[in-house]
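Researcher: Good morning. I'm working through a list of sequences from a screen, and I'd like to move beyond sequence-only analysis. For each chain I'm collecting a predicted structure so we can compare shapes side by side. This is the next one on the list. No need for commentary yet; just the structure.
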Amino acid sequence: MDQTNEKRDIQSVSDFFEGRSVFLTGASGFLGTVILETLLRCCPGIASVYILLRSKRGLMPAQRKEMIFEKKVFAVLKKRSPEIFDKVQVVSGDMSKPELGLSDEDLQYITEQVSVVYHCAASINLAKPLRYTMQQNVSSTETIIDLCRKMKRFCVLVYTSSSYSNSHVDLPIKEEIYRLPFPVQTFLSALKEQDDNKLLELVSQYKSDWPDWYCLSKCISENILQYMAADLSVAIIRPSIIGSTWKNPIPTGEGLIKFLIGDENRIINVIPADVVANMHLIAAWSIGTKK
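Model: Good morning. Structure tokens for this chain:
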């Protein structure tokens, strides 16, 4: 049955995920791991979670999945519901490749079963060159949108952006997508044509408006979502600097940081990882149920 057409009274976030399958990118990253744990702990009725992993440093995707589960954040869940981990299915792929580098079999499973997509994978290395960052963070967003269109049960896409994606505009930043100084279609064409000179020409005069290529890539991705996914149900989350968990499943930051050097007249833009993860689940529920 097409889950988007099911008639059921969805009251809670847990109800929304009941019987649904989720596709998650970035599960091996800091935020992605917390989102995965939150989904499994708070939504026990979830059908399955497909996580995209690539081979890295001699480790196969299945081995990397087991390494994720060894993280301290899963300790509570392992004691309470160890069987829940059987719902996590690893699919081998790469964010920078067409169709995410998925096999025909994995692509079929995902397009037939998944209804909720979390795209939080991104290169956050601020020292990487322009093309690498854009290939990882921008091209992958376009690929995810194409994948969502192929899903027979698609319900909602939740995209992880950044509070600093719109550092080219004055405060306050509103909950809207701010247009780029250049057409996003032109940028995508230059990216696909491997035209580095054109890429640099497009962004060089605006580079000073963003602190780094990462923040610019997030702004471009938001524009791509507006340009290519206007007819899809999409939520964009803009967290600031993501820190340790506050409460759930455990308060990982208590007592670790004794002091910070800073300006007492400034506000440090740090948000707990579990708050961000909760917001990702709530956003899917809100957009998916139109509440």
